[in-house]
User: Which sequence fits this backbone?
């Protein structure tokens, strides 16, 4: 929901991450008067807007509070983040919980619908209705859609889902033209079943709670299912959850059953993340990582083979959003990995394994690591034509560091050991090509290629040292350290006064780029570079000549910054300078000048006459996992195991001992 639309929430439609509006109407009926709570842009005269009072978010919840007549309503959107529960994490659904409270008795009905735009096209969706026991579910899809096809980044080959289950309410359903279905609920407080429809239409479910005094809630499940989610080297991979719930209706029914535990876990995660982030770098940093969590996890498909449904063959896939749609891009996994390091480092292995299997099969013939596993999502079919985007130093260094990070965090040496020979080749490539670096791209391909880029040389040195530490081969550890000495101690990568690392070497003393690759040396305690290499950044990156209104740009040529790399760099600096970086990112996040999902690339200063504080290109990228860089310094697995005791009350502003009831009347 774009932030500039929240104050008009009753009329505002939510969006797909790329900016397309999606129909999702929520209406409450209080004592025969209907009120729009969300998503009714053109209401009939018999539907009034509710009054919006507040909007809040945690890592897993977004909560809007409104009033309609004498009743207060809370819309709680919960997207579970379950680091160690692959079943829960892989379920492609979210909860909408509508909670109503009133001091007096009111006659109340609740309604929610979604429209055909959820299928990836605006009109002519097919729908189906399922009911078993008390659970009701609608699905919508596009008839005869091509498998693995997209429209403006939206999948076309799956099914949009709306489901619910009554507790003590009476439930009704309908499908049809949106205006007609919504008016029917507003007039009658119930729905009259399905009608054939073409063009714009909705599927809707409603609850009649009768007379309500005090507090009551109803739950809806909303999501999008792709039974064949990923094409991995010609084989279909599906959601992990289908090992236990191969049928969509059964998965949805389980998801509704799981609300109690999912809510408890979410409350524990929100509380623990908030506390640890505040202790790490203050309240503003806590705000940043909370807003980043769902976005970073939402970019991942956790899958198993569709044929065998064998959970021991689980693989994870990640889409390069907002650029070219590549799959499992190594330099997307890399900036995001502090999130996995903190929540569950096994995701590093799950995301690298599709590539490592491909490399081990000998299908990639270059001496450096492949850039990605597929030109466009969801086809992870490799690059047998050998034409992947070339980032030789970048991706070789990334792979070696990620392998060590996974091993250090988990204690699992067997996974990387099976690929030692492959990785040794990439370490040797860094040795041979990491000083006289050919003109090439780094992860920041928008900035263009460069020869002898210092930050790539830093990554090469750290990558070589990482391989030495991973394998115990002292030669590589020694060479990595020698390379660091060359670029810092002997000054090849710095200006003459050693005030900063230069953008490119040699003889470019006035240039600079943020040396974010030093973070890897600090996180893994490799000691490739001496402390003095980090100390010189404290003064340099606090300078007004370098630092912009919203942080430090990527390099001296740019006005734009990368939020993930700025948090990485902050992790190498002293507390005072680190806090400046946190303040700058928080200022961008809260400046009111943009209404995108969290952008990791934005204008930080106006030296080249750019408007500061606005995002550039990048929407909703999982690379915001890099914002967890400061938390990751506290160690791996900080949030893998979560305590559930006593947290739900604390998180939602309830007094100790107050009882919260779930939809089945059970105490939470």
Assistant:
């Amino acid at each position: 929901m774009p932030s500039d639309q929240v104050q008009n929430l009753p009329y505002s439609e939510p969006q797909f991450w790329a900016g397309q509006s999606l129909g999702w109407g929520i209406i409450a009926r209080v004592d025969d008067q209907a009120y729009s709570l969300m998503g009714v842009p053109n209401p009939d005269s018999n539907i009034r807007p509710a009054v919006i009072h507040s909007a809040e978010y945690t890592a897993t919840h977004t909560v809007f509070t409104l009033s309609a007549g004498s009743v207060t309503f809370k819309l709680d959107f919960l997207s579970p983040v379950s680091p160690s529960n692959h079943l829960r994490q892989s379920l492609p659904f979210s909860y909408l919980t509508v909670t109503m409270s009133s001091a007096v008795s009111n006659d109340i009905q609740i309604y929610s619908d979604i429209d055909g735009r959820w299928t990836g096209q605006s009109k002519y969706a097919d729908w189906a209705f399922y009911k078993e026991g008390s659970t009701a579910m609608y699905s919508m899809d596009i008839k005869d859609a091509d498998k693995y096809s997209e429209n403006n980044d939206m999948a076309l080959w799956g099914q949009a889902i709306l489901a619910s289950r009554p507790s003590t309410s009476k439930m009704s359903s309908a499908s049809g033209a949106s205006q007609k279905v919504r008016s029917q609920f507003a007039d009658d407080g119930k729905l009259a079943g399905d009608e054939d429809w073409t063009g714009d239409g909705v599927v809707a479910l409603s609850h009649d709670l009768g007379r309500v005094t005090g507090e009551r809630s109803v739950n809806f499940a909303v999501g999008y299912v792709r039974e064949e989610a990923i094409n991995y080297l010609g084989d279909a991979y599906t959601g992990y959850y289908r090992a236990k719930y191969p049928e969509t209706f059964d998965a949805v029914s389980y998801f509704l059953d799981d609300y109690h535990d999912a809510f408890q876990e979410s409350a524990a995660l929100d509380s623990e993340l908030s506390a640890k982030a505040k202790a790490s770098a203050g309240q503003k940093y806590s705000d940043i990582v909370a807003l980043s969590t769902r976005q970073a996890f939402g970019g991942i498909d956790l899958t198993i083979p569709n044929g065998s449904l064998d959970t021991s063959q689980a693989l994870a896939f990640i889409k390069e959003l907002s650029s070219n749609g590549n799959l499992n891009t190594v330099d997307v996994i890399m900036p995001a990995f502090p999130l996995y390091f903190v929540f569950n480092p096994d995701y590093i292995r799950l995301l690298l394994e599709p590539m490592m299997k491909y490399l081990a099969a000998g299908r990639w013939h270059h001496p450096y690591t492949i850039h990605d596993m597929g030109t466009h999502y969801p086809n992870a079919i490799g690059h047998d034509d050998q034409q992947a985007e070339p980032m030789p130093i970048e991706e070789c260094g990334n792979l070696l560091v990620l392998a060590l990070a996974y091993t250090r965090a988990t204690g699992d040496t067997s996974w990387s050991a099976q690929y030692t020979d492959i990785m040794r080749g990439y370490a040797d490539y860094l040795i041979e090509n990491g000083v006289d670096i050919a003109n090439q791209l780094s992860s920041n391909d928008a900035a263009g290629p460069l020869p002898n880029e210092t930050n790539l040389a830093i990554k090469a040195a750290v990558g070589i040292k990482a391989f030495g530490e991973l394998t115990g081969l002292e030669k590589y550890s020694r060479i990595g350290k020698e390379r660091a000495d060359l670029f810092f101690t002997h000054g090849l990568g710095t200006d003459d006064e050693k005030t900063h690392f230069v953008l490119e070497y040699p003889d470019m003393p006035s240039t600079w780029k943020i040396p974010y690759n030093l973070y890897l040396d600090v996180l893994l305690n490799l000691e490739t570079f001496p402390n003095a290499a980090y100390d010189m950044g404290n003064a340099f990156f606090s300078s007004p000549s370098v630092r912009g209104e919203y942080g430090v740009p990527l390099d001296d040529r740019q006005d734009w910054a990368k939020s993930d790399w700025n948090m990485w760099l902050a992790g190498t600096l002293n507390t005072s300078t680190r806090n400046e970086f946190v303040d700058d990112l928080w200022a961008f996040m809260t400046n009111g000048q943009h209404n995108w999902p969290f952008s990791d690339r934005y204008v930080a200063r106006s030296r080249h006459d750019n408007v500061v504080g606005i995002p550039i290109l990048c929407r909703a990228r999982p690379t915001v996992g890099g914002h967890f860089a400061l938390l990751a310094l506290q160690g791996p697995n900080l949030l893998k195991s979560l305590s559930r005791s006593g947290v739900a009350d604390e998180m939602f502003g309830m007094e100790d001992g107050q009882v919260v009831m779930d939809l089945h009347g059970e105490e939470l």
Summary: Confidence is low (pLDDT under 50) at residues 643-668.
